[in-house]
User: Which sequence fits this backbone?
């Protein structure tokens, strides 16, 4: 099991690496190059492929490449093409009129890699190992984000943006090694017999289960309070009097390691206790931890207070994420893992997109104390739906 977890960590790293390289990191390069703020903001639209990846996931469920297996073949191809694309990106000036097509290609390849890695994790692990596997993958993902964010900015500061993106391309290419070293999932399930079946059968199979609609509503609600709270953390820190260096030192460093610790603890606990119990306990802790920010809004700004709130919230968020990802994995049929997991993970992002747009308005009208209390309270409906958990059927 140790080999599988280590490989999932590095696959998670590979999954997290491209996101910021076409997001905030690339925006920093554009800003430094004198690109208008309107164009910089519009770059966010190139990440649409992450939200619609379920549209081409059936293709990756249906077809197996002539090397490795049904999952690792697509992962390796995505990684090699991503490395080539990032290296090409390093050679281009950040002019939106010329670079946008390449950025869209990177976003598409990155989303495709995510589809295959999520499906591989589901196929290579037993049901009781899904939580621990998710924690290793998520922690690797966050290290990838750290390298693509702080790491790339540091390289650009001391060398150049071109060098930063060349190093990131090299890191992506190295990830291919771990794809080849990862255990095979050949023979775990037979693929759909046609592309039409790959498109239609995952949805027929899912909605034929007991409680399928309730499951989708639960996925929408379980992380909604946590997501709405995190959308406003940085504005909150600044408005209550914390300096940017304090925010960077505590929220990024303490927050990262607290999330990693929470994810690992959640994965280990999921090996010992049932998924049902963990969703209840971790969900409650996830909601309660948001109240630490209501408390933080009432006290003078101190490093100790900030460290406590950040560490508590990130640790509990890591617990909740481990259980939630394991839950979604348990819902997928191994024949259609790529399509069903892509659909569920896309659905998970809906609250951040639509409800997050209102977070600033709510915070402004409520004030920080009531806003974070509201974020904790809005998690209650999702938790109450867990009373129906044992009526929800999973694939045989």
Assistant:
């Amino acid at each position: 099991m140790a080999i599988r977890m280590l490989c999932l960590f590095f696959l998670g790293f590979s999954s997290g690496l491209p996101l910021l390289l076409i997001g905030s990191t690339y925006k920093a390069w554009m800003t430094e190059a004198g690109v208008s703020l309107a164009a910089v903001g519009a770059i966010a639209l190139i990440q649409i492929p992450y939200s619609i990846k379920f549209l081409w996931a059936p293709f990756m469920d249906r077809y197996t490449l002539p090397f490795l297996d049904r999952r690792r073949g697509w992962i390796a191809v995505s990684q090699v093409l991503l490395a080539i694309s990032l290296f090409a990106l390093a050679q281009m000036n950040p002019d939106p009129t010329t670079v946008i097509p390449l950025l869209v290609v990177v976003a598409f390849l990155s989303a495709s890699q995510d589809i295959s890695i999520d499906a591989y994790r589901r196929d290579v692990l037993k049901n009781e190992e899904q939580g621990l596997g998710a924690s290793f993958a998520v922690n690797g993902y966050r290290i990838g984000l750290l390298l693509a964010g702080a790491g790339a900015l540091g390289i650009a500061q001391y060398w150049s943006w071109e060098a930063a993106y060349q190093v990131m391309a090299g890191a992506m290419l190295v990830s291919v090694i771990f794809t080849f070293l990862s255990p095979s999932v050949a023979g775990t399930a037979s693929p759909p017999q046609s592309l039409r079946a790959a498109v239609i059968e995952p949805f027929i199979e899912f909605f034929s289960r007991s409680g399928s609609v309730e499951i989708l509503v639960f996925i929408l609600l379980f992380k909604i309070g946590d997501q709405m709270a995190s959308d406003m953390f940085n504005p909150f820190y600044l408005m209550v009097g914390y300096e940017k260096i304090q925010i960077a030192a505590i929220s990024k460093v303490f927050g990262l390691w607290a999330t990693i610790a929470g994810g690992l603890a959640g994965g280990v606990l999921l090996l010992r206790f049932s998924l049902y119990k963990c969703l209840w306990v971790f969900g409650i802790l996830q909601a309660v931890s948001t109240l630490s920010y209501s408390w933080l809004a009432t006290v003078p700004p101190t490093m100790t207070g900030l460290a406590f709130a950040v560490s508590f919230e990130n640790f509990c968020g890591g617990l909740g994420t481990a259980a939630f990802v394991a839950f979604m994995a348990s819902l997928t049929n191994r024949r259609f893992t790529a399509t069903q997991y892509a659909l569920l993970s896309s659905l998970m992002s809906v609250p951040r997109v639509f409800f997050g747009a209102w977070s600033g308005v709510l915070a402004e009208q409520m004030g920080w104390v009531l806003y974070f209390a509201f974020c904790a309270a809005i998690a209650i409906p999702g938790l109450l739906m867990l009373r129906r958990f044992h009526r929800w059927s999973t694939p045989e």
